[in-house]
Here is the input.
Amino acid sequence: MEPSWSNNWDRELGVYCNKVFFHDLSLLDDKVKNIEVYQEHPACLLYHMLYFNNINYFLNTNFPKKHLLSFTTSYTPNNDNYLYGKRTKLALELLNTNLNFHIYGNNWPIFDARIRGQIVDKKDGLIDYQYSVAIENSREKNYVTEKFFDCFLCGTVPIYYGCPNIHQIYDQNNFIQLKDLTVDEVFNALNNNNTFNLQELKTIYFTKYNIYNIIKSII
Here is the structure.
């Protein structure tokens, strides 16, 4: 699943496929062929952790939390397109506070002990953390990716910005949704007293939004 603006998906899928799922049909442009085969559906993606950790591992493992907050983002300060630059901006603003958190990602030119560098397995930047900031590459209807669900699969509460109708896909009581991408919002999120049922989110992900279940229902 790619954002509508990405060049990494084939606009001619409708020519040689009987059914194509897309997250927001209103965003399809005139390059798309045979739009009649397209069906709108929330994104159903695989998680982005090493796959020797299977479904039962994520469903049944209790991950003890050693740290408060992580933030996985590369350093892209000059990229104002979509949400890349906004991720970097928020990370820089958090680094200017005394918040005890960790950043994982490439190309950071700043020396700060809170910047931990690149990780091979994304879960290593999640399983030890109570919360993680998760910002999508694009803000589009039904466009929810591993940036969101990798968090709760690791027992980590997403502090999320991206899909505007995420509350229609997953129970909004079980994650925190950012509105303005400000430091104050992040601090308020960390100071909440809510109880989050992450197990419910896991169940929804592995059943209702399981790509294999959807394919099975079609064929």
In short: The helical segments are 13-16, 55-60, 84-95, 146-153, 183-190, 198-206, 211-218. The chain has a mean pLDDT of 89. The CA atoms of residues 18 and 187 lie 47 Å apart. The longest strand covers residues 129-135.
